[in-house]
Design a protein that fits this description.
10% of the residues lie in helices and 71% in strands. By secondary structure, it is mainly β. The chain has a single domain, classed as Porin. Strands 1, 2, 3, 4, 5, 6, 7, 8, 9 and 10 form a ten-stranded antiparallel β-sheet that branches.
Amino acid sequence: MKKSCVLAGLPVVLLALTAQAGVAGSNRIGINGSYSAGGEVSEPQGGFGAQGEFAINKNFGIELAVDQFSDKSTDAGIEIKQDLTSIGLSAVFRGQFNQRFGGYLLIGFDYNMPSADVTLDPGYYGRGWHATANLDDAFGAHIGAGLNVKLADQVELFLEYRYTGLELTGDITVSNGTYSYTDQVSGTSDFGLFKLGINVLF
């Protein structure tokens, strides 16, 4: 429910932030599709997101972005599917190669909301055993780079790779209806995202 509310309200927040001021023609708002790769990602899955950038000047801006993606891993009869929503705030440094092509670097922090589903293989653990995972929200830090191509006066296509450093904690409970055991878990959950999207400039 929390993730759904975040994603539903994001376009309104982004539009409100970028419409306040900034350099005309350099503010941005848009959407993207993503593919998770790098870090602790085991079986890459697709994702999606949206972003808005407030331009301080033509070479520097502040971006607010929300991305959601999934990752799956399987080991020793345990399958874990994780969904993660990441809200990032970045400083963006831009430069133009020519009138059509440009590039940028970004660095910032993010707030991450993970959830996980755990499935136990009956062939390994017998029937009747179930597992649940509760992961805590956590802050992370990211760095990235991208290229943008102008399609029209106020429309651009962009390709970006963003790498996020993240440590997650939580607990996993295993039970069979009669017995139950809960253990604390923690570990590195770094991830990278390739993002392909479109921005409208105003």
